[in-house]
Each structure stands twice: as structure tokens, then as C-alpha cells.
Amino acid sequence: MLLDTPDAVFDSARDAVKRRDWPAFFICVDRKDLLRIASNGLTHLLGQAATAPDVLTKFCASHGIPVESLEPAQQAARRVVESAAAYARVHHPGAGATGAAPPADVNGPHTHLQLVADYKRQLQHVLTAAPDLPGLTAALEQHLRATAGGGSVSSSLFVGETLHDVDIDGSKAWGRRSIRPGWSEDIAFVRTKGAWRIRLFAKRPGAPTS
User: Residue 162 and residue 21: Cα distance in Å, rounded?
Assistant: First the structure.
């Protein structure tokens, strides 16, 4: 796999998607984007584990992840769910219909957002400790596709597209990806440790937002 130029990494990523080779694809992606995508897959996995703990156990065993390392994230996820349910009972019409008393520490949206932020921090702690983040992201993507009917990345991303107008500025680069006349879109690259990676979610400075 070639990652020595923006053109090379784009070609490698496009070919990997065509083959549905997610481990090869995620090698081409910048670490910040890997963390974002893996967080989505890990959230799905933890959601499954709430009702089927063996799913999490098997996944961790298959990918060398200590199950106990996920316990703080699981606890944080439960607090988020409990907070949302408690807030709904207190503040939405029909609250109290079940007869369940809300916790005394329900302080509104601000507290809930703090719990969500803590959950995200716990996810990041797990993912940043992964020795092979591209490999873990690929495993989570494959699990998501197998159990949810779709993934975090489009199965047609870059397929049939060409890269042009690449402008390199030091360790960063921008280009345009196009698949047909009249349609093109910015794409960003970053070079780390001598290899170029794609920044899937980057927005060109000054570009209009949708």
C-alpha cells in the first residue's frame, strides 16, 4: 500500500473500499477521524452489550481487548441513559405516569450534557489506548455492518472517483474529488510520520457550510 503522496493514499483508499477491505481502508485515514468513526462503532457495541453481554465478551476476546477496560465506558453509558429517562419523566407531559420517582439529582439539560461529555471521554480513553487503532476501527466497522445493516462509512466512498487539483502545503494538502462532470468536492490530507492520510471530515477554511 502506497501512502507517500496524496494521490497514492487516495488510490489506496478507493481500491480498499471497492474490495470491502476495511482494514486496508482505515490505514489510509487520519487518526482523528479513526477515533470519531471507532466511537460510533463502540457505542453500538456497548448498546448491544446492555442486553447481550456475551456480544461484548466475544468481541473483546477476538481483538485482544480487556473487557474490564470497557467498564468505565459502560457505566458512563448507563448514567447517560438513566439521566435522559429521568429528565423525560420530570419535564415532559405524562411524567410520573409509571409511578417511578425520578432521582433527586436531576438538574436538567446541563447535567445531562456533562454526563454525555464524560461518556465520550471514556470512549476516547479506550480507543487511544488501542495498539492498532486502524485495525480496531475496521473490526468495529465490520461488526456494525454485520449487526446493524450499515456502517459508519459509505460502501461506495471514492468508488469511481478521481482526484485532481492537489495543492500541497508542507504536511497538509487539499484536492478535489470528482465522479462525474459538474460534481466535485474538497478532500483534505495530512502527513504524519512520513505517510499521507485522508481527513474525511475536514472542511476547507472559508468554504461555505451546508
Answer: 19
